[in-house]
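Handoff note, outgoing to incoming analyst
You'll be picking up this chain. Sequence as last confirmed:
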Amino acid sequence: MKKRLLISGKVQGVGFRHWLYVKAVEKNIHGWVKNINTGEVEALLIGSDKDVDDLIKQCEKGPSSSSVKQIKTQDYQQEYSKKSFDILSAS
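Most recent structure output, in case you need it:
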């Protein structure tokens, strides 16, 4: 399963990207996470259906310092072959 997430709320400056990185590595999920200039966090999650679904549910809460208001998800159609999870610089 490949899902692109757009996470809004109080999600920048609260350790959200690092928190998501740790959770993704624990679940053997590949992809990336980055801050975007709208104040949201964007992420690509690639892994088994169950692990990706579980991680999306965890993102609804996020780290204790965050306040997630909404998560928009969409299927990701492009190829992504890196076998790691990366924190990308803001775009």
